Amino acid sequence: MIDAHVHVWRIGENGFSWPPPSLSAIHRHFSLQDWRKETAPVAAEGVILVQSQEDPADTAWLLELADRDPAVLGVVGWTNLEAPDAPQAIARLAGHSRLRGLRPMVQDCAADWYDNGALEPAWAAMEQAGLVLEALIRPAHLSSLNRLAARHPELAIVIDHAGKPDPRALEGWRRDLSSIAARPQVRCKLSGLLTELSPDMPAGAIEPIVSVLVDLFGTDRLMWGSDWPVLTLAGNYAGWLEQARRLVPPSLHDAVFGGTARATYGLTR
């Protein structure tokens, strides 16, 4: 099993700004050693480490961890894609063998963020480098992301956390996700759903969401991620993995729990 979405951080280091102290349950250091303890019962093969800070120091640290720890199969990092020197920064980062993608943190940006013409040089550089664009978005961004996918059909795109849908308002999300799912370069992560539930919602409220994801991406474009340690705000590792395995048809388990991540991030082991 490959966990396609794991975070680590050190409070006050590597450009740290999130999580805030108000999220006291996760406002502490989290390391790969902590992840190993959490996952010991499930024998995870390895992880994709995903940036959590909008700072180059965070990405540099994750790449250092990848150099030292064989459990890190790849890194999704960050750089300022709007900077004038973004293409050069992307090329430098792509020179690291473990860097697999970049993730601008768009979830709190304008709905049309991906339409910004100033970003075009960055998209072209990512295409040229063969890097994945990881999309941390909300449903309102799906249309703009779809237009980007149309302009850059060779740019591999992964939608994090299914685009963070609200289980109480799925119609528009389903419509827009269906449109972008028609583009073969787009993949989706089955991740981060429990933490989007309001406190009065049961864990089963995500079942209609998972059903849509399986229908749209299931054959070879859906991958599971824990979103650990953010996950611990709403559940636990073993419980989320068990729920996902129950909701995903057994015929898709090989792809969702490993194969899609291997193909998407070009993993060789």
UniProtKB/TrEMBL annotation:
InterPro entries: Amidohydro-rel, Metal_Hydrolase, Metallo-dep_Lactonases. It is an enzyme of class 3 (hydrolase). Residues 2-267 form the Amidohydrolase-related domain. Pfam families: Amidohydro_2 (PF04909). The keyword Nuclease does not apply. GO terms for molecular function: hydrolase activity. Keywords: Hydrolase. Its EC number is 3.1.1.-. Belongs to the metallo-dependent hydrolases superfamily. PANTHER family: AMIDOHYDROLASE, AMIDOHYDROLASE-RELATED DOMAIN-CONTAINING PROTEIN. This is L-fuconolactonase. It comes from Sphingomonas aerophila.
